[in-house]
Predict the structure of PAS domain S-box/uncharacterized domain HDIG.
Amino acid sequence: MADELSKEQLAKQSELRYRRLFETAQDGILILDFQTGVIQDANPFITNLLGFTREELIGKELWEIGAMVDKAAALTAFTVLKDKGYIRYEDLPLKRKDEKIVNVEFVSNAYGVNGDRVIQCNIRDISDRKKLEKELLEYQHSVNISMNEMVDTLANVIVARDPYTGGHQKRVANLAVAIAAEMNLPLHTIEGIRMAALVHDIGKITIPAEILTKPIALSNFEVAMLRNHVQAGYDMLKHIHFPWNIAQAVLQHHERLDGSGYPNAIKGDIVCEEARILGVADTVEAMSSDRPYRKGKGIDAALEEIAMGSDKLFDADVVNACLKVFKVDGYTFPPLI
């Protein structure tokens, strides 16, 4: 008799503990009949969230009171829940009694109680999280706009001093984006390549204009001075915290896979992917276009040059993508403005 009483007391204590947890939970909880979906119990949090009293919820189906925005989808989900025993929605819109929509995380699972099966729905209000996510997206959009404006401003600095180099950077950026897209790189990566290309020659503002436009062969000293533009560009950009490898791409865009490039004669995989793409796009644009002091050799000669250097000077995947862009996709450079 004492054992039976003890078991009964333990059962009551367990039920009381559950009830306290149920009543004080900071998530909404609904208990539904397994067969019909009729609401059997509702805790205070869910009544406050939806604006219904407990009495208005008990005995009703969740879709009957209009809380489920899409009734047909709710009925389908209920069928799946009965079959699988579990269903989860990361972001589900529920309609309050006052017709306002509230976004929730909705988790339902079925389990047995005293020989019967019931469904428990745990409902978490994520409205504040959604608001923060929206604010974060707006902030990120604002930051992206600011970064684009900053890069455009830097690019225009070189335009003011050397219009040819400004146009060259824009055309290299256009081709680099086409190559990166052909290689199926992520959009975020492509955007970084575009920005790096727009400022890849920014270091040339440190080079005297008479050297940039000199119509005859440069002296060894002048060549060394010209080649320093990549280091100068890197030094200008390295302290800007871009979410891309822009400073390194600028520094390395004249490096070559066999170590014959500059400024550091690095080889192979040490050359970053962005620089490999810029190196090909830069070579094709520079060779094919007219400069103030000489005529361009044309697209065919430029493409032949990178094809001959494939897998030695230039990344073979980048070269193949560039050749396809021109020969299959019919790419042409945008006109100089």
